[in-house]
Amino acid sequence: MGKNYYRKSKFSVKNPDGYRGALLRMLPVVLMAGLVPLIVRQYKYETGLAGYSWFSTNELDYDFFLAPKAVVLMILAFVMAGCVGVRLWKEKKKVPFAKIMFPLFAYGLLCFISSCASENPTFSFFGSFEQFESFWVLLSYVLVVYYVLIYAQTELELQVVSDSICFCATIVGLIGAFQGIGLDLLATKFFRGLVISGDAGNLSVRMGEKQAYATLYNPNYLGVFGSFILPFLVMMLLFEKNKWRRIWHGVNFVIVALAMLSSRSRAGLIAVGIVACLAVVFAIYKVIKWWYLVIPAINFAVVLLLLVNAYNDNIIFDRLSNIFAPDVNEVTEYVAEDGTVIRETGMTEMYTAEGAVVFRYNGVLAEVSLYAGEDGFGMYAFGEDGEQMELMSEDGLVYKFAHPALAKVEVGPQYIGEEFGFYVKAENTWFFLPGGENESYKYVRKNPDGTLAREASMMMAEFVGFENHQRMFSSRGFLWSRTIPLLKEYFFIGSGPDTFLLVYPQEDYLARQKIGFTDDQVVTKPHSMYLQVGVQTGVLSLVCLLVFYVWYVIQSCRLYAFRKLSTQTEALGIAAFIGSIGYMISGISNDSMVVTAPVFWAMIGLGIAANYATAKDRKTKEE
Asked: Sign of dihedral through CA atoms 223, 229, 234, 237?
């Protein structure tokens, strides 16, 4: 970094011009970290998915929490790009050169390449259904880190970034805390009048009773927010120099903790617990010095957890206790009348093929087809060995298998709407229509109310691992097992930002039904930031992202581990670092989303800028 690039500037309310100037220079970051997560507004858009058989026929949809935030982030990306360009052009020699940015720039480049080669470039550049994290949004994440690095020339500007994060925490915490006690400000008539125009109907957010989500769309994302904001606030409480700010951080901690606990997010709670242990190591001198305050604070946090859990009928502890519980798959065996040993595994395979519907029940495979001609109609089936299986029917409408393992399976012809098809009935009922010549049969999807919907293919998706833990972490084991095989296909270049729903095996209907999904549910994300990046922008981009973060971790550990920290810049640096760890941990079971990621990336920018400033200050003192 250029000599004297960072200049100390002590904050003072008596010097508002200095703070105003810093606020103006850091305005794009302030908007990104302080205001974007709070935006809720009606946004009408074309889904672009009506042509896919696994989606509904709806051409238009409304979004309130994601798309409006994405639009602002796209604008900020262009603003920050322009500001960075101006700074590089005007002050080439004074602008800091940071090698740590190389892997992050490489990640940004790979995002652009993946967008250009995308499964759907429109989605990748402008966002898609229930996501809206397009290339321009991803670019804003990269740019905000570099923007803070080159524009935060003083401690005061670093403080402005911190203040914007804390302001966002205050508003999100208040809204979430009120939701936790049953007072949802977003559900009020006044708020709905601000957000909704006449043609959108009602803003409907389906959550559990007294479950908080704030302005972040989903309780899980409020949990993610708490996972990195709470550690950040704790470190600022320990190291903050200004007493009024320390009070602010303390109040923020309480309301954000209440909001996060009211979200009932397990991932957020686990991440905070892990980071708390790391924070003690890094702040050991402060913990020892303020032990008489730290111990009561820990007791208060435990009591708060117990009270919120009791208020929510023990739901938090109940959810924590079954995170890794294995699936219950009881398999019984019995001997049929003909001496055949039957293992009752139920329906384990079902897919449509050319000329038949194939299923495996109790370990026995059958290929079932419908016969319909001028001389009548009927059903016939073939086994795995190609031999015809015996079907029995008394009325020509209901057919039973003679094979003892298939005794509980029933098939039969049936009109489905105005078309003639057939059904398969076991522990569920599935309806099928014959395709055209040389075409596969079509599965007729069901709506949640049991009515029939669109025709679609049915497949059995490839999966890796989690055989007995499909329901782990609210069925994340199921999603991860079917996402991992996609990584080999998108190793170098991803499918494109916001295209996960296009490459995920949506038509794996039998497996989805067994795990508890309905036919109309669309999987839009893998519920893991790392898998999300690996599939959408490529495994190579994921490696770049991890190299960048590991570099940041090593840099921060060298600066702050087992040291007595005395400056405000050091306080901001260690707080941002410890907070970022919470986000990376919660990212294992949650996606990158426009509701939380902008704050995280602003925090990363704050941390890196503070690290370089701290390193510069120490080097100057040594000289």
From this structure: negative
Q: What is the pLDDT of residues 245-300, one digit of tens each?
A: 999 999 999 999 999 999 988 888 889 988 988 888 888 777 777 766 777 777 77
Kindly tell me if the per-residue pLDDT of 3 is higher than 70: no
Report the amino acid identity of residue 14: K
pLDDT tens digits, one per residue of 421-473: 999 999 899 999 988 666 789 999 888 777 788 899 999 999 998 888 888 88
Residue 611 Cα to chain centre, angstroms: 29
Task: Answer whether 76's CB lies under 8 Å from 140's CB.
Answer: yes
| Tokens, residue 241 | 């120099």
> How far apart (Å, rounded) are the C-alpha atoms in residues 373 and 566?
88
The set of residues, in sequence order, having a beta carbon less than 8 Å from that of 105 and lying 6+ positions away, is: 142
**Whole-structure pTM value:** 0.91
> Coil, strand, or helix at residue 215?
coil
Separation CA 443–CA 458 (nearest Å): 6
Which structure tokens are listed for 417? 């709407």
Contact by Cβ (8 Å): 62, 43: yes
Where are any strands of DSSP class E within 304-407? Answer: 332-335, 341-344, 347-353, 356-361, 364-373, 376-383, 388-389, 391-392, 399-401
Give the β-pairing of 399-401 and 429-433.
Answer: unpaired
Token duo for residue 351: 């897919």
